Amino acid sequence: MEINRTFAQDFKNEKMRKTSLFVALLMVCGGLAAQEMEISSDTVKIVTDSLSVTAPMDSLQESSTEKKVVPAAKKKVELPPREVQRFCQMMRDFRRDYDAQLERWDDIYLLITGIRPNPDYYKLSMPATYYEAPVEQAFSISGWKPRIPFVKENVLEKQLPKVADLQRSAQVDKAVNRQLLSFYLAYPGLVKQNEENLKGLKPILGEKMVNQPRKENLLEMMQGGELPNQVTEKDLLVIKPNFWTFGGNGYLQFSQNYISDNWYKGGESTKSLLSGFTWQANYDDRQRIQFENKVEWKLGFITAPSDTVHSYKANNDLLRLSSKLGYKAFSTWYYTLSAEFKTQFFSNYETNSDNLVSAFFSPAELNVGLGMDYKYVKDGVCNLSVLVNPINYSLYSVASDRVDPTKFNIKEGHKRESVWGSRVESTLKWKVFSVLMWESRFSYTTNYEKVLAEWENTFTFSINKYLSTKLFVHGRFDDGVVREEGDSYFQLQELLSFGLSYTW
Q1: Number of helices (H) and strands (E), helices first, in the chain?
Q2: Which pTM was predicted?
Q3: 75-106 pLDDT, tens per residue?
């Protein structure tokens, strides 16, 4: 019993010793853990008044793991390949154009002929169909070129001017084929049609589009009363084509020159007045026949201080009537019968004398010719006519007995002279600038012994619709008249004026 009691007491002491050692170790470990938590930023403390309780090591680690905030990592956004981006942009453009065309189709006031469909995308517009081109393109190496090393970039090629892409349709077709190949691999079950089946299709003939055409009885429709939007006889307006055109112009202009009596170089003060009128009536059936008629007159007066007999003189006096009847031969050439008559209105005298130089129908000139007429017309810019008469008849006449006929291609002792020969006449109306108009007339008449040529030029500087400045230059050559010694066969007249002008 004593031995058992001793053994029990030793066992109890041993157990208490082990327990005390375990508590001491636990306290040491707890102190170390508490010290680490104070140093660390993730330390967890539980405070109750003045008592601090330190949690075990395992629980601290779990708590630290749960409370720590870890920033989320940014995921890298992967952009689609560049080819896919270009294809998507191409499809967006195609869809935009397609929608725009649909809006234009719905517009009742828009001509549908203005819509231009794009056939480059027909493979995408039709139902899913297997085409051979995408597969052939995938296995083909056409267009591939080996890269040659050690070759510098061609700088001159970049400096050349860029031209339009002439192979755009081919490039679009290649991009469509690549997308169709991807569609075949991803969705083979949706491809129900084959290209071979499409090749066997035939176009629909016009007579087979409607198997049973609609039949209407016109008699019943007319007996049923007036049709909607029906036009009655009283509502009809029949306009016959008018092949006649009328036009003309008129002007009244003046000029003035003042010189004092004591002017060191001498001279005379003069005033001049110039008027003109032109009227045209032309017929053109736009097919074969042209008939042109023109009435023209010019009348000008000038004061003559040095003339003691006459206070004024006529420095420009002309009345001219012309007519041309043409039948189209080919292109812009016409077989033409032409006639021209010209004379003057007032009498004209020599300076300081009553000797009559010219008068009404003294002289008078008539030209009748047969030939061809060339025409060039550009509306509003140029109007050219060149008349060539291989056969021409000229009649010169002087009605007054006081006028010398030898000055007008008439032999002495006669009042009329008939001449057969040839004639060339050219008329030009050219709008050189917006404010400058040039009108020219050239005639050349000959009987192969003597020549009569005239060249009239009128330059009109338009200020506005009613005001203008005109420059007249008239040259004349006549070797059939009697000239005085020292004189030339060439004659010249020039006049510059300013005033009113109107064209209709």
Answers
A1: 9, 18
A2: 0.53
A3: 666 777 776 777 778 778 877 877 776 666 66
Q: How many CB atoms lie within 10 A of CB 169?
A: 12
Q: Do the strands 348-349 and 333-343 form a parallel or antiparallel pair, or are they unpaired?
A: unpaired
The size of the chain, in residues, is 504
What's the rounded Cα separation, in Å, for the pair 470 and 272? 13
Peptide bond into 203 cis (omega under 30): no
Q: Return phi, psi of residue 44, to 5°.
A: -115, 125
Q: At 275, give phi and psi (nearest 5°).
A: -135, 155
Distance CA 289, CA 334 (A): 9
Q: What is the pLDDT of residue 199?
A: 73
Q: Write the pLDDT tens digit of every residue in 12-51.
A: 555 566 555 555 555 544 554 444 444 444 433 433 344 3
Domain residue limits, the chain: 2-65, 86-145+168-193, 244-503
Question: What fold is seen in the domain 244-503?
Answer: Outer membrane phospholipase (ompla); Chain C (2.40.230)
User: Given CA atoms 327, 333, 336, 341 in this order, what sign does their dihedral have?
Assistant: positive
Integer Cα distance of 29 and 55 in angstroms = 11
